[in-house]
Amino acid sequence: MFVLTMYYKNILPKKYSESNSYLLLTRIIIWTFLICKVHSKLDQRYIGSMYGLQNETLVNQQRGIRLDVRKTLAIQFYKNNTKTLETYLPLTENKLDKSGCLPTDKFSIVLHGWIQSCSDEWAVALIERLSFYRRGCVICIDYSYVASSSYIRLYANFEYISEVIVSIVISLFQYGFDPSRGYLFGFSFGGQLASAVGRILQPQFTLQNIDTCDMAGPGFDPIDIDHSKAAKNVQCFHTSRDKGTLIYSCHRNIMLGSCGLSQPSVASQLHLGSHGLCVDIYINTFDYPFYALRKPPTECISFAKAANIPNDFTVGYQENFNKQVIGKIFVPTSLHYPYNLSKKELQLISRMNV
To answer: Are the CB atoms for 274 and 257 separated by under 8 Å?
Structure first.
């Protein structure tokens, strides 16, 4: 462990502070040791990819690494939780007319992760919740053809996918949609995409809200990106230490479970793992209260600013963003579905935390 620490410390960029270096060293070392450990079906996919990275030769990496995103990416439109249109690029005014979505509607865009699609159970559930609570037009962008390849190929196409999604969003604006009524949600790799899309749109267009769930870390850390610049209000939910980013630069960094690094419910939901549980917990915040601790837990190392938490503050999708609550927010989670704690349980934890 000492040798690994000294090795990685020497290769980290000099600009990082000691605190940031500690977090980044922890990420790299943990990833090194956990790469051979299987926790869930989702974990197996990641680990298989990592072995693929090691075994794939440079020639194979370079051959065909740029996949044809524009021809395979599907755009799915929903109104009242009913799919009204599935189409491909270019996104024309005629196609938008057929979608039933109006420029006066609020619009939500959902971006999935690696080895996922808009047909995944969590994506279907989120579209339903957004249709019920937020209403308006819900759009899921399905790039599963690219996402079904190895992680290194997906990562190599990150900028290209981002540019294609930006072109879709700009088409919506040209059709008359209002950026101030726009919301993006991204899980894992999709979380990094959501932030990138929001930042590319600046300064001409500024989206209102972006929420991300356990934004991917592998391939993206340790680059210190300011995700708060992606929209007026950016919330990032964190659930895992090995797959989620350790860059906490959103307006709100919501640290779920044990310091945002693991979830107690992995004991009852082994097929999801701490990473995959993020979207389940996020979807449950629409219907169940997830109360935040007013003070950071003593066991959680926090170099970033902790938010000033009002009484009975709950986290989740929030259309009316309270700009007074900015920073790290710690939200304990439970062993079983729906993974939230009652006020009484939270008070008990708070007393133990004094």
So the answer is: yes
Number of alpha carbons in the 13 Å side-chain half-sphere of residue 160: 16
Report the distance separating Cα 182 and Cα 232, nearest Å: 10
8 A C-beta contact, residue 338 and residue 316: no
For 14, residues 6+ apart whose C-beta sits below 8 A from its C-beta are none
pLDDT tens string 237-252: 999 999 999 999 999 9
| pLDDT of 259 above 90 | yes
The per-residue b/e assignment along 294-311, b for 16 or more CB within 10 angstroms, e otherwise, is bebbeebebebebbebee
Collapsing DSSP to helix, strand or coil, 98 comes out as helix
| Cβ–Cβ under 8 Å, residues 195 and 212 | yes
As for how many domains the chain has, the answer is: 1
In a domain, residue 127? The reply is yes
Tell me which residue range forms the domain holding 288.
35-352
